[in-house]
From TrEMBL:
GO terms for biological process: lactate metabolic process. Residues 305-335 form the 4Fe-4S ferredoxin-type domain. Keywords: 4Fe-4S, Electron transport, Iron, Iron-sulfur, Metal-binding, Repeat, Transport. The keyword Transcription does not apply. InterPro entries: 4Fe4S_Fe-S-bd, 4Fe4S_Fe_S_CS, FTHF_cligase-like_sf, Helical_ferredxn, LUD_dom, LutB/LldF, NagB/RpiA_transferase-like. GO terms for molecular function: 4 iron, 4 sulfur cluster binding; metal ion binding. It comes from the Bacteria. NCBIfam families: LutB/LldF family L-lactate oxidation iron-sulfur protein. This is (4Fe-4S) cluster-containing protein. It comes from Beggiatoa alba B18LD.
Amino acid sequence: MQSQSHDFKQRATAALRDVQLQKAMANAKTGFIDKRRLAVQALPEFEALRTRAKEIKEHTLKYLDFYLEQFEKQVVASGGQVHWADTAETARHIIVKLCKDANAKVITKGKSMIGEEIAINEALEAEQFEVVETDLGEYIIQLAKEPPSHIIAPAVHKTREQITELFHQHHQQYGLTEKQTERAALVNEARQVLRKKYLIADVGITGANFLVAETGSTVIVTNEGNGDLTNCLPRVHIVTASIDKVIPTLEDMTTIIRLLGRSATGQEMTAYTTLTTGIKRTGDISGAEAFHVVLLDNGRSRMLGNEFHDMLRCIRCGACLNHCPVYGSIGGHAYGWVYPGPMGSVLTPIMLGLQEAGDLPNACTLNGRCQQVCPMSIPLPTMLRHHRIRQYKQGLVHGRARWALTLWAFFAKHPRLYHAGTAIKAKILRFFGKKHGYFQQLPFASAWTVSRDMPAPQGETFMSHWKRLQKGFNQ
């Protein structure tokens, strides 16, 4: 997927004006949030599990080289192969070669964010392979020729009416000419088309939620079962995963899985949890004859031990997206690359550079909801601040913004001047805004007032207001 992160402002503006997108996002927003809240409330030990999961991931990252080598050893012992890819380009080259060596024509794919990160579909299609996404959401956006807008619900930006038109346009070639409008009928229509592809596929490509070092198993969690058909019916099974997906044991996996479903979709567990270990064995009724795992670094090893280290604990549940007011207003495509929302605003500048994705760390109110709901306790707002600091030090903040930050930094280092200045400003704004109680135009705040009114302050700073309240309480 080609990055367009540098166009964030324009894309965000277009998203806010997109009536269909706003309708789709409104439908999805409360569902994710309410279901997660109820699922967490029903599990008294949720916070204890968060603590344990963080410990597991931190232990693994500390000894990452050991566990990756152990995983490779177990994969080889079960008849598979591990391929190491330092960059996305290397990973694409490996996978294309594996498909050519298998004389493949049709390739089915399960949902994989690493597949999106390395743009594997484009690479395979350029070599004339027929690539079919089997996850319903991914299948929808493949037909629409769009990237995913959410890491667990790729087509969350689509309304049912849009999907109806999309299926009607593309499925007539399969003899499905009746336009379906009900959800169940649409799912059944997609199933009819995809079932035939499963049976003729030569290669199946899936992602991995976890890589278990002690057994060499790859783990996927799905709600549709498409991943099972993708990994066990074709002759060749290829797994794409990043190096941070490895964990030590099956017991560790079960701990984190208890957090994953609840955080992602509000389920105790997803409908399917599938472990794949090596090639088809004697007596197995299904399974691949060749098993390959492509392990991607793509900048992750550089994150170990630095200010972005905590991001390597991410289990891609999507909770930070679901609770982000910015993502909830503009959707995922505005972010311009594979990973949207708070986690994307941290990852994309690391992988593509701040020059390319400098707007993303600033597309955040720093309200902290993402950190609050993250099952792995990742301090996303702190890392976004680190990006902003890097931007300033690298001279990527220009013009009025740099001047304003320099001026603010001066006053912030002199508390008495800061408090005096804010008190005077509050009184002035109160005086000029008391007639209407708001401002339709305000110097240095045109980005706000161009689309909404700015409420007039009440005439005092928060600190003075708080001291006055405290004084009243103590009397």
